Amino acid sequence: MRRAAALVAVCLAALTAGCGGKDDSLSATNVETTAAGPGVPAGFTVRAVKDEGFSIALPKKWRSLDAKEALSGSTMKSFEKANPSLAGQMRALAQPNSPLKLLAIGPGGGGTFLTNLNVIVTQIPSNLGFDEWTSAEVSQIQKVPSVKAVKQEETQLQPGQALHLGYRASFNRASGTFEVFVNQWMVKKDDFLYILTFTTSPDQEPKLRQTFDDSAHTFRLTD
């Protein structure tokens, strides 16, 4: 099995989180936003990525970004320079067949941190059982020196049995090291692995934890 997809998602989360409170990236054109229906939390709207066959609900004020635009600017180059060990994974995300299928950010609030979600879709062997693929993903994440205090629990999302991880990670930027808190849900359907990665600052995470959980449980496969 190739390098864990969840680790790539963490790299992306760190890039988005560290890019500051102002973002000029274009809104995503491949994401359709619709009003909430039954089972969707109040104050959320549904974001559907039809060509990838999934949808997820997010707070109305969150913005879906053009991922290609977000990954091609100077912020990414600065992040790669400050975190050279992650440069390969970041460049892979910017390729035409990138596993990154959805990128969304919360309100900036004028600070230096953007709470964000990314959804990565990648293929893995269809015959891998739950224990096998989850063990591989968790093992790769735990090997990253900047990741600490990984907690995990089994849960259920609409596509099937899922794994929920919570952990802290630290990364570099020009002004110094910054720390993030990651809530990550992973669910496999046939030979596709879907990874939902919510990232925020450690001080905001207790207030946003329920929002992330509510959003993750609206994830649907639409095909």
Which radius of gyration do the C-alpha atoms yield? 16 Å
Q: Biggest sheet: strands side by side, in what order?
A: 4-5-6-10-9-8-7
The CATH superfamily title: Mog1/PsbP, alpha/beta/alpha sandwich
Give the low-pLDDT segments.
Answer: 20-24
Q: Tell me, briefly, the overall form.
A: globular
The average pLDDT score comes to: 81
Number of helices: 6
Would you count the extended β strands for me?
Answer: 11
Q: In the CATH hierarchy, what is the class?
A: Alpha Beta
Largest sheet: 7 strands, antiparallel
Indicate the structural class: alpha+beta
Q: Secondary-structure element order, as H and E?
A: HEEEEHHHEEHEEEEHE
Spatial gap, N to C terminus: 26 Å
Number of domains: 1
> What is the correct CATH architecture?
3-Layer(aba) Sandwich
Share of helix, binned: 25-40%
Determine the CATH topology: Protein Transport Mog1p, Chain A
Overview of the molecule:
This protein is α+β, with helices and mostly antiparallel strands and 223 residues long. The chain has one domain (5-221): Mog1/PsbP, alpha/beta/alpha sandwich (Protein Transport Mog1p, Chain A), CATH 3.40.1000.10. 26% of the residues lie in helices and 36% in strands. The chain has 6 helices and 11 strands. The protein has a 7-stranded antiparallel β-sheet with strand order 4-5-6-10-9-8-7, with helices on both faces. The model is unreliable at 20-24 (pLDDT under 50).
Ordered list of secondary-structure elements with their pairings:
Blueprint lengths: L4 H13 L14 E3 L9 E6 L4 E6 L3 E2 L2 H5 L2 H9 L4 H7 L6 E6 L10 E8 L6 H13 L4 E11 L2 E14 L2 E14 L2 E9 L4 H12 L3 E2 L2
Antiparallel strand pairs: 1-2, 2-3, 3-11, 4-5, 5-6, 6-10, 7-8, 8-9, 9-10
